[in-house]
Specification:
This protein is about 45% helix and about 15% strand. The protein contains 10 helices and 9 strands. Strands 5-4-3-2-1-9-8-7-6 form a 9-stranded parallel β-sheet, sandwiched between helices. Bound molecules: 3-phosphoglyceric acid. The site of 3-phosphoglyceric acid has 12 residues, from strand 9. GO terms for molecular function: (4S)-4-hydroxy-2-oxoglutarate aldolase activity; 2-dehydro-3-deoxy-phosphogluconate aldolase activity. This is 2-dehydro-3-deoxyphosphogluconate aldolase/(4S)-4-hydroxy-2-oxoglutarate aldolase. It is an enzyme of class 4 (lyase). It comes from Caldalkalibacillus horti.
């Protein structure tokens, strides 16, 4: 069993977190397998996806050794509880809900609430967040990260929303620890064609991009 600090490190080591939102449920397990084979070991299945809880559980069972599997778009304590029961290693949200932070921090899983301002980042950490997710990031840009890292360098940051191969490296260079990537990694054509090798190659390109 990993300690909380080791889990935070696992999330930082993953660097790229694949955001799996509303993908055909029959495709999710082969998709996760392809992503993990390409080195993308952060897996976030959003709760607004069909069969999300079942898929979190199955992904944990199958890939839990190599991957860090979490639940995304967690808006309430009830949802957080269900995701934790399904085995989620981490709980991510686009918003900052104190009740969710309070609940998850009492468990062995990580909580990564959504924030947008320096005050919200600080507040989330005061309440016990393990990392904060700045969302949506592309309206702020990498310069915002650099500026925030000055006074708030101790806060572990995740960023999500509008990240692709052309900009991911800039965010990592600016000081982000984990980057959530949705649409640009969930390539519709590759998924539709069950081109899992193509997905693995795409995952590798994202990993290469963050590793410089
Ligand atoms: C989402 O809301 O699904 C995530 O923030 C991912 O966003 P993206 O598809 O713009 O990467």
């Amino acid at each position: 069993m990993l300690t909380r600090e080791e889990k935070i490190q696992s999330l930082k080591d993953a660097q790229v977190v694949a955001v799996i939102r509303k993908i055909d449920p029959d495709k999710v397990i082969p998709l996760v397998s392809a992503l993990v084979a390409g080195g993308v070991t952060g897996i976030e299945i959003t709760l607004d996806s069909q069969n999300a809880l079942k898929l979190i559980k199955e992904s944990k069972e199958r890939f839990g050794q190599e991957a860090f599997v979490g639940a995304g778009t967690v808006l309430s304590v009830e949802e957080a509880k269900e995701a934790l029961e399904a085995g989620a290693d981490f709980i991510v949200s686009p918003i900052l809900n104190k009740e969710v932070v309070d609940h998850v921090k009492e468990t062995s899983s990580l909580v990564v609430p959504g924030v947008y301002t320096p005050t919200e980042m600080w507040q989330a950490m005061q309440w016990g967040a393990d990392m904060v997710k700045i969302f949506p990031i592309t309206t702020l840009g990498p310069k915002f990260i650099k500026d925030v890292k000055g006074p708030l360098s101790h806060i572990p940051l995740m960023t999500t929303g509008g990240i692709d191969l052309s900009n991911i490296a800039e965010y990592v260079k600016a000081g982000v620890h984990a980057v959530g990537v949705g649409g640009s990694l969930m390539d519709k054509v590759l998924i539709q064609n069950n081109d899992w090798d193509g997905l693995t190659q795409l995952a590798k390109r994202f990993k290469e991009a963050v590793q410089g």
